[in-house]
């Protein structure tokens, strides 16, 4: 969850953030959801963390079937 998605996505290939993304070598943005307020975004993230991996993969396939890096599409 971030208020500046472009900055956050740029940080990943640079290895800036510590934690899950750095530990697992994640470099691409394949899915993102906008939310009207921070409380909704935090709640959605918490809910999704409890989902099975298959549910998350299905969600990505629905929105981005090729798993393209969405970084270049950010405005």
What portion of residues is helical? 40-55%
The biggest beta sheet, please? Answer: none
Distance between the termini: 18 Å
Globular, elongated, flat, extended or rod-shaped: what is the shape?
Answer: globular
The overall average pLDDT, rounded, is 90
So how many helices? Answer: 4
Nearest-angstrom radius of gyration?
A: 13 Å
Q: How do the SSEs run, as a string of H and E?
A: HHHH
Strand-pairing-aware structural class: mainly alpha
The amount of beta strand, in percent, is: under 5%
User: Number of domains in the coordinates?
Assistant: 1
The count of strands amounts to 0
Low-confidence stretches: none
Question: How is this structure best summarized?
Answer:
This protein has one domain.
